[in-house]
Task: inverse folding
């Protein structure tokens, strides 16, 4: 993996001539060695999207000056909505989980392996069962059960914890609670959910039971950002597996859980590496 | 391929002990050499399904006597719903098509190749464009345009043609018309449709546009039997292909058409080889 | 899952008329309620394969008498090679691992979840790194490093441990050592390996590097039984994932590890549930 | 589809700072509206690859001057190997085929449908069988049988025909003849073959028989450019389908033929739309 520090910019702006030229000229002028560049134009919406990554080694601008300089010289001119990241800065991720283990183990095992560049300081659960798993991996576990009545208050408690741990993004590793809009507002396009169906098929509860009843020949899993509307947020990643009449609901669940964890894990990878731009209800995943 | 003649029985009946034993004993007693045997039990519905195929070479019963003998000795006892087929008898298939060529070419090319065991005496279309394709392959082409007003009458005309050609089953190779219940009743579980989405996602018109709008990362195609309710019949086969933000609606259509023809072609294969049992709104595909 | 106890028979024998009839009649006579029945005939080799599973609840034969009765009444007559299993008896599995964590976590997490019916009393490794993981899951960890010189002796030590723990089958969760023929003889068709390529492409060392060099558009993983010849044993399961020019070797490894663990996990599932019959260098997987 | 004329440049050159900036500045200066831009850097080989497409509508340079201007202002400076294409100019494709129909029908049907932007003036075959198919689609058919002895002479005859028809690239739609190096030299990276296996597994003759014998659980197809070494040319596209013990060699062939045609068809799409850069024995497919 890259040990040298890199910088990365994600851009969304109205499409017009000269954007690519301006950005690449800016980097060239400052001796930025481009590692990766991706762009996409949504012709219908007349929007331009770009992801560019360059070595900081030899770059003429100081890290602290990049933001203001780029804003002044480039971003203002093209009315860009943009963000700057440094790859050496690890993201901080919190996990919310109820009682299924498969996604939790997957995430914690991935985070321990050498590929992921993330810190996981906090696991929050509405159940107690998975405390042991958290401890095993040396992650703080907070048990915060919720009722309809105390939900708002509990969410405040959660937000306080998330703030304290400086959490950048949240992963719902099969968390069986719906968040309030107020909670979601604090993490725009930063709460990643895994839904155990091929959305938009089978939203809501018990998708495997519905899939079985419908007699589909393929089941799926969908990872998406949480928005106000349940199971309607921008889709990040999907995948599928074949099933047959031989598979009962239990088999669908078993096969599906393998999918869920893989699809969630890929979505986290894209998010963690700043490969995603959200535009309306769609994602551009630069991979 | 098998050139020797085989017989094949498809069975549905209430589940109880001894069905497999009775059927296999019947075949053994009559010197039937079993080529293939598949069974499935739906425990919830307490239903038993079986497909068994055997060489007629050396079989002690005359072809004409198999039906009545099996009915008397086995089927009555287990209250079977069952059907008998002989593999040397080619099925007769009619194609309904509007103006897309991809599924039509696929089917006609497959039927010409050595694998398919089917006759296609008739193509019916509500447009004139594909007459040339039909003629190329030596298949009779009937142009039967329909309006809301004359639909019932036109369907009568179609049924007459289908009867005249002794059609066993119908394939809708992207046929943009909805049949009346009266028409469908004449071909129960014998009208195969291809829908250009991963059902139950995106039923109805313009699924590729809806998929694009939704921002899915995978598109699909679904082949199913036509029933009264649009796009709700028993699913025979499904498959998918990955898409990305780079794909516009045109790309989805192009990629999807490859899927459509392959999925439809597989569904026809299963139907043609009597591999499908329908049970409620689900299929058992013995493959 | 089935909590009632079931019995299961796996049969290989020369093909002839009447085998299915005889086996099903035997079960029917003894009031065995068949849950699942699968058969396959290899026409070229003229071999018959069967897997049949039935409820012991209400079965007239005592568990201890099934073996001798079936042998006498059925197996002798058809010259069967066959084995009898009881689903309530958990298999005992040992894991061999070197230093990669992904397959180990996958297996241990699956074994903890509710689906798997297996005991894992022993992990053996030629490295020390994964001791902590083993302890976390409460599994005994034995560190047995090997050199060319002491391999034979170390294998004896391993065999002793395996015997002591009454191990039924071994899983090599990325174990970077080759076993001697003498070792393998002790576990015929019972050592499951995961190879990180789509065999027979890229056998041996560094398949991801070779795949990258070759410029393939898809990479794979293969789970197979270990035999004398390296990477040549009967294939149990394979799967693939797309790659592109954007993926460097590190990316292939990362994507491939997701595959490896899933493919290995499926192979274990088939083995654990006695769904596999090996015939020459091929497997029949009844699923 | 784009009806406006576009221009497209494919670039390979040594990697250094400023290439993207220079190319995009060149287009911007000349009022070129970029439709699509892709780049890739092979860090190991220190090579830079780019594909850029822009509207000619409003572009300040005359079509006839683009080549020399870009060469002088940009290409010389960066030592580029590059090519310029205009999307309104249809490629001319020749098909070589022996006697299988599946790939031929696929290609001809695709070429008739609205998506493909290609002319097919010529089909060459070493057999006579498919003459009728060619005529059906209005394509000239040349029967050129070959023996070991007259191969060189026949290839000269073929080259003459290809030249006369101004053929840009050749598709081998299951053509069972090996070309001489002399022939291949005339169409560098412009002869597209389909091999009926997942290369590098099962090169050479009878891959389906080998796959069956090996007992693989997945079969594949590979489309690649023809080079001197048989089945070793740069891979353009691959795909796979699952098989099981139930599938005999005939089934593998049937399932495989569906794959072959789809994979070949995708490879043609990439080539036709100038999405491919070849680098050593690998392809960069900008899609």
Result:
């Amino acid at each position: 993996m890259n040990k040298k520090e890199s910088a990365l910019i994600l851009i969304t702006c109205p499409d017009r001539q000269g954007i690519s030229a301006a950005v690449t000229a800016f980097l060239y002028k400052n001796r930025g060695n481009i590692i990766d560049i991706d762009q996409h134009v949504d012709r219908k919406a007349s929007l331009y999207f770009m992801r560019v990554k360059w070595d900081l080694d030899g770059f003429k601008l100081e890290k602290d000056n990049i933001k203001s300089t780029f804003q002044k010289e480039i971003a203002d001119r093209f009315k860009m909505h943009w963000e700057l990241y440094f790859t050496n800065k690890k993201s901080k991720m919190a996990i919310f989980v109820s009682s299924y283990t498969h996604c939790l183990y997957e995430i914690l095992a991935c985070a321990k392996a050498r590929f992921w560049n993330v810190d996981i300081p906090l696991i929050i659960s509405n159940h107690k069962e998975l405390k042991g798993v958290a401890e095993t991996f040396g992650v703080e576990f907070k048990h915060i059960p919720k009722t309809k009545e105390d939900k708002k208050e509990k969410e405040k408690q959660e937000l306080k914890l998330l703030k304290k741990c400086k959490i950048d993004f949240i992963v719902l590793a099969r968390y069986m609670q719906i968040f309030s809009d107020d909670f979601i507002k604090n993490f725009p396009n930063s709460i990643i959910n895994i839904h155990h169906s091929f959305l938009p098929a089978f939203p809501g509860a018990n998708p495997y039971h519905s899939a079985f009843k419908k007699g589909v020949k393929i089941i799926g899993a969908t990872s998406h950002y949480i928005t106000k509307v349940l199971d309607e947020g921008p889709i990040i990643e999907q995948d599928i597996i074949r099933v047959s009449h031989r598979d009962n609901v239990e088999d669908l669940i078993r096969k599906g859980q393998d999918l869920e964890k893989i699809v969630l894990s890929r979505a986290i990878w894209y998010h963690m590496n700043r490969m995603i731009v959200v535009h309306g209800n769609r994602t551009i995943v630069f991979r």
Observations:
- The radius of gyration of chain C is 21 Å.
- Chain C touches chain A through 18 residues (CB under 8 Å).
- Chain C has a mean pLDDT of 95.
- Residues 249-272 of chain C form the longest helix (24 residues).
